[in-house]
Specification:
The chain is built from 17 helices and 19 strands. The chain has helices spanning about 5, 10-15, 35-40, 40-50, 85-95, 115-120, 180-195, 245-260, 275, 295, 300-315, 335-340, 340-350, 380-385, 425-430, 435-450, 450-455, and strands at about 15-20, 50-55, 100-105, 135, 155-160, 165, 200-205, 265, 290, 325, 355-360, 460-465, 470-475, 480-485, 490-495, 500-510, 515-520, 520-525, 530-535. The structure holds 1-deoxynojirimycin (NOJ). 1-deoxynojirimycin binds near residues 206, 329 and 330.
């Protein structure tokens, strides 16, 4: 083991991969992916060079929000398999020297969870205060103006006990009251349950939502709201999210993790960068990786991306480890946002930046958002705001494995239709094609993992303009690399004034380029990205 490997932990060195379990691999012919299906595909992940797998929720759930409405935190939904299947999955992942990250959804439960059933049964039930109950205003209206992410008010009236309860998402997802120590303890016990089993960490759902203003003040209006946006965006959620007390909760969760060996937590947090970095916590005792969604939220323009990357690097606390994401199950896929040619450039960016990359399943073969006919929409966000095109189904379609029926995903009717082109675009076909997206991902990962400069080295910006951006990566005592990306469709020259270089192209989005030696000037084709090993 070399010096760098010793200093950095697995969640810093490695590559993460998100699986949306409904859509990865069906093993029991019900059209929905499951745990045994994932086991069947672990060799693909190992081959690709993945170090850790994050699986979206697999717990018992009425599926109002496809598993993000949990009715039992320590069970497995029969749709996905049994606890034995889970144990086997964990073992098979560990046998392959990979890690397993579970999705933890502590902010809200399902309305079918026994905790909520008890809480709503009467005002004096011992669990009443486990959720956020509030009297109506004198005129009977909601306690304040807070909105639900999936449309409408965040308050739901309970006829029986004559109070409102708060739900940041669907009314079937009541928010827990994290100011209550019993709730805190119950969720820490949930964490321990899975950690005791050997799970390597958690991706914590909507971490910045967990504590709300204790005065329940109205949120201010968003002066930049436009009608195409989700109704939730009419207000700025300054009182319903990101409250200072949340950091104490995150610290407590971290303490649980730290009482085990080398476990970790990624926080799902959609906040501006200066706020995001506070989730690393005081002395880095918060989330190991507050998810950084800048490559999703920043317009795909060279200058803006270069600036965003540098702002992030500059905002990180000392010892705060960076991370990067291009897509996830809530967002349009990278190929659909920037196009197929730029998606290759994006892959190079994701896998050469400093910090842990998370790959969303299917991005490695350039899967695109799939158009879902109106009457097949399943996502509540799409169904509740039908005129806004906000359904997340297009980015959640079944994985395209091969050119057999349903892409090898299932031999039944898939729960969501596949892309029409799955017979052409799939893992099997792309594995055999050196020019495919899959080959590009595989080679980028391989090189990144071989070269300390790429997986743990320093990042230095070199140049950016309207078309391109360039940076170097360097770990002491190792060869330096330079990444030059053309974010436009037109050719351009890379001729930095204050940086002279000589190097060989070792990887390129157009592999024909590889092996070429350049010094000080490079002419790049449109949509081209190159990675050079620099001479000393
Ligand atoms: C964030 C999850 O990523 C999303 O899929 C879900 O709908 C909400 N949290 C509510 O749990």
């Amino acid at each position: 083991m070399n010096e760098e490997k010793k200093e950095h932990l697995w969640w810093q060195n490695g590559i993460f991969y998100q699986i949306y379990p409904r859509s990865y691999q069906d093993s029991n012919s019900d059209g929905v992916g499951d745990l045994n299906g994932i086991i069947k595909r672990l060799d693909h992940l190992k081959w690709l060079g993945i170090s850790a797998v994050w699986i979206s929720p697999i717990y018992p759930s009425p599926m109002a929000d496809f598993g993000y409405d949990i009715s039992d935190y320590t069970g497995i939904h029969p749709l996905f398999g049994s606890m034995n299947d889970f144990d086997k999955l964990l073992e098979e992942i560990h046998v392959r020297d990979m890690k397993l990250i579970l999705d933890l959804v502590p902010n809200h439960t399902s309305d079918q969870h026994p905790w909520f059933q008890e809480s709503k049964s009467s005002r004096d039930n011992p669990k009443r205060d486990w959720y956020i109950w509030h009297d109506a205003k004198p005129d009977g209206s909601e306690p304040n103006n807070w909105l639900a992410s999936f449309g409408g008010s965040a308050w739901e009236w309970d006829e029986q006990t004559q109070q409102y309860y708060y739900h940041a998402f669907l009314k079937e997802q009541p928010d827990l009251n994290w100011r209550n120590p019993e709730v805190q303890k119950a969720m820490m016990d949930v964490m321990r349950f899975w950690l005791d089993k050997g799970v390597d960490g958690f991706r914590v759902d909507v971490m910045w939502h967990m504590i709300k203003d204790n005065q329940f003040r109205d949120n201010p209006i968003n002066p930049d709201y436009e009608s195409h946006m989700a109704t939730y965006d009419q207000l700025l959620p300054v009182y319903s999210t990101d409250q200072p007390e949340v950091h104490e909760i995150v610290r407590m969760m971290r303490e649980v993790l730290d009482s085990y060996d080398e476990r970790m937590m990624i926080g799902e947090i959609y906040l501006p960068i200066q706020k995001l970095v506070t989730y690393y916590g005081v002395d880095n005792k918060g989330a190991h990786l507050p998810f950084n969604f800048m490559l999703i939220s920043t317009p795909w323009e060279a200058k803006k991306l270069a600036s965003a990357i540098d702002q992030y690097e500059g905002a990180l606390p000392e010892e705060g480890w960076p991370n990067w994401v291009l897509s996830n199950h809530d967002q349009p896929r990278i190929t659909s946002r920037v196009g197929m040619s730029q998606a290759r450039v994006a892959a190079m960016l994701l896998l050469t930046l400093r910090g842990t990359p998370t790959i969303y399943y299917g991005d490695e073969i350039g899967m695109r958002d799939v158009p879902i006919p109106f009457d097949e929409v399943q996502d509540p966000q799409g169904l509740n705001m039908p005129d806004k095109n906000l359904s997340r189904d297009p980015a959640r379609t079944p994985m395209q494995w091969d050119n057999t029926d349903n892409g090898g995903f299932t031999d039944a009717k898939p729960w969501l239709r596949l892309a029409d082109n799955f017979r052409r675009e799939n893992v099997k076909v792309q594995k055999e094609d050196t020019f495919s997206m899959l080959s590009l991902y595989k080679r980028l990962i391989e090189l990144r993992q071989q070269e300390p400069s790429l997986h743990v080295g320093d990042y230095s910006p070199i140049y950016s303009d309207n078309q391109m951006l360039a940076f170097t990566r360097h770990a002491k005592g190792h060869q330096q690399y330079m990444v030059v990306l053309n974010l436009s469709h037109r050719p351009c020259y890379f001729k930095p004034k204050h940086f002279s270089f000589k190097g060989t192209v070792v990887l390129a989005t157009f592999p024909e380029r590889e092996g070429t030696v350049y010094s000080n000037t490079i002419s790049l084709g449109g949509d081209e990205g190159i990675l050079l090993r620099l001479d000393d």
